[in-house]
Specification:
By secondary structure, the protein is of the alpha/beta class. The chain contains four helices and eleven strands, in the order E-E-E-H-E-H-E-E-H-E-H-E-E-E-E. Strand 2 and strand 3 (about 20) form a beta hairpin. It is globular. The two termini are about 15 Å apart. It binds NADP nicotinamide-adenine-dinucleotide phosphate. The site of NADP nicotinamide-adenine-dinucleotide phosphate has 28 residues, from strand 1, strand 2, strand 3, strand 4 and helix 2.
């Protein structure tokens, strides 16, 4: 059975990004992102896809957009229904890598949410959606500091299995 996971870096007020760019640049977070998502399909919105410096190695890119993405190495889906039909046939872990609209689209189905929680604020125009932390078990994977910025990488695992209504 497929498992949908979210992965994001957020500020103390859930800040995700500003002017279609990342606002958090922590080496350990990048390393964690790479090792956690490597070998798995990654799902993203068109704006996040366009903000990537290049295709991320060893990961199938699944991009959600109303448009057709002209890149033969990317699979495009035009709606939630379209990508759901594709995901229904998968039997592996997939990672939602943003941005805000796509986290919101999938958060109620997430089995695991990996959050790098940064103890700082930043100007932002997109935010990670709030979710009910009571429905998840929290495990701290890493605590650290880079150039005076403190952060914690937490893994939230959903307590009970989701039943998809037919
Ligand atoms: N901190 C982090 O971990 C992190 C991670 C990822 C991204 N970000 C930040 O998040 C920001 C981008 O987030 P965002 O919410 O503005 O954009 P986004 O989610 O990356 O992309 C939005 C686009 O996705 C497509 N889309 C969304 N819902 C759709 C639907 N139901 N059907 C078809 N297409 C749909 C649309 O593309 P079309 O317009 O082409 O139709 C829409 O414009 C940036 O600042 C980025 O740096 C932060």
């Amino acid at each position: 059975m497929k498992s949908i996971n979210l992965i994001a870096a957020i500020g103390a007020n859930n800040e995700l990004g500003y002017q279609n760019d990342l606002i958090w640049h922590l080496k350990e977070d990048m390393k964690f992102f790479r090792s956690t998502t490597s070998g798995h399909p990654i799902i993203m919105g068109r704006k996040t896809f366009e903000s990537l410096p290049h295709l991320l190695p060893n990961r199938t890119h699944l991009v959600i957009s109303h448009q057709d993405i002209r890149n033969p190495e990317v699979k495009t889906f035009h709606s939630k229904e379209e990508i759901d039909a594709y995901l229904d046939k998968l039997d592996e872990e997939v990672f939602i890598i943003g941005g805000a609209s796509i986290y919101k689209m999938f958060i109620l189905e997430a089995m695991k949410i990996y959050l790098t929680e940064i103890k700082a604020n930043h100007q932002a125009d997109v935010y990670f959606p709030t979710f009910n932390k009571d429905e998840f078990d929290k495990k701290t994977l890493l605590e650290g500091e880079e150039k005076g910025t403190f952060y914690t990488i937490n893994q939230y695992t959903r307590r009970k299995t989701l039943c998809k209504e037919k």
